[in-house]
């Protein structure tokens, strides 16, 4: 079972610049791969397989950011392609706009490159970042990845993806169980002979209601 914990983070100026660069690189790689895949498909009808590593020689500044973030851009594009060809209602993958007020990138937890400890979060390339952890994380949870997000209001957030083992369902003593049987009159009757105990307002007021209705019918005449 996957569980996501979302916290606010407070990167310093240098870390904010790194995040901005990573957002841009992820968007660039995604759009570049989409453009080449689209062009190849239109010309040959085949799906072009391409990885971010292809562009690092031509664009060396891609090496300055987290490589796993670029790999996740490739995975997101592959998912969008598969969804479209499986069900066209998903729509063809769209290019990412620089004007989008919300920016984000995703990375993976590998060999302890992401750590949460003592009110600080460690991310690849960025180092330790101050975090406001308002929720306790399960002790048996295994960290799988993280997504950094810059909201339109300028606040930064981190979404941490954990894998947790599902807790076994507690099986209680069947002797303590109670059976319920539907009843038109009382709603239900349990196995111990108890019922809902309705107040029966309508039944208790039937005679008064009949008198009131007769009186009302005379007034209309």
Offer a concise description of the structure:
The protein has helices at residues 13-44, 53-56, 67-86, 201-204, 206-220, and strands spanning 2-10, 103-108, 115-117, 120-123, 127-132, 142-150, 156-163, 180-183, 187-190. The chain is of the alpha+beta class. The chain has a seven-stranded antiparallel beta sheet.
Describe the secondary-structure layout.
Layout: E1 2-10, H1 13-44, H2 53-56, H3 67-86, E2 103-108, E3 115-117, E4 120-123, E5 127-132, E6 142-150, E7 156-163, E8 180-183, E9 187-190, H4 201-204, H5 206-220
Antiparallel strand pairs: 1-5, 1-7, 2-6, 3-4, 4-5, 6-7, 8-9
Tell me what the structure shows.
- The chain is an alpha+beta fold.
- The chain folds into 2 domains: 2-163, no CATH class; 179-220, no CATH class.
- 34% of the residues lie in helices and 24% in strands.
- It has 5 helices and 9 strands; from the N terminus they run βαααββββββββαα.
- The chain has helices at 13-44, 53-56, 67-86, 201-204, 206-220; strands at residues 2-10, 103-108, 115-117, 120-123, 127-132, 142-150, 156-163, 180-183, 187-190.
- The strands form 2 sheets. The chain has a 7-stranded antiparallel β-sheet with strand order 2-6-7-1-5-4-3.
- A hairpin with a 5-residue loop joins strand 6 (142-150) and strand 7.
- The longest helix has 32 residues, at 13-44.
- The N and C termini lie far apart (71 Å).
- 16% of the residues are buried.
- The model has no long low-confidence stretch (mean pLDDT 86).
């Amino acid at each position: 079972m996957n569980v996501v914990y979302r916290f606010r983070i407070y990167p310093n100026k240098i870390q904010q610049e790194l995040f901005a660069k990573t957002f841009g690189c992820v968007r660039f790689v995604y759009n570049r791969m989409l453009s080449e895949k689209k062009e190849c498909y239109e010309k040959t009808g085949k799906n072009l397989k391409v990885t971010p590593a292809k562009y690092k020689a031509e664009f060396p500044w891609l090496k300055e950011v987290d490589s796993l973030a670029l790999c996740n851009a490739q995975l997101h594009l592959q998912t969008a392609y598969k969804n479209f060809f499986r069900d066209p209602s998903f729509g063809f993958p769209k290019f990412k706009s620089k004007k989008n007020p919300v920016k984000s990138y995703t990375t993976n937890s590998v060999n302890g490159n992401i750590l949460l400890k003592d009110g600080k979060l460690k991310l690849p390339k960025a180092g330790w970042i101050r975090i406001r952890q308002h929720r306790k994380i399960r002790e048996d949870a295994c960290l799988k990845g993280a997504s950094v997000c810059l909201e339109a209001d300028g606040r930064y957030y981190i979404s941490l993806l954990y894998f947790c083992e599902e807790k076994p369902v507690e099986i209680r003593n069947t002797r303590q169980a109670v059976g319920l049987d539907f009843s038109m009159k009382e709603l239900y009757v349990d196995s111990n002979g108890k019922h809902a105990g309705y107040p029966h307002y309508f039944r208790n007021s039937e005679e008064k209601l009949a008198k009131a209705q007769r009186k009302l019918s005379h007034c209309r005449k």
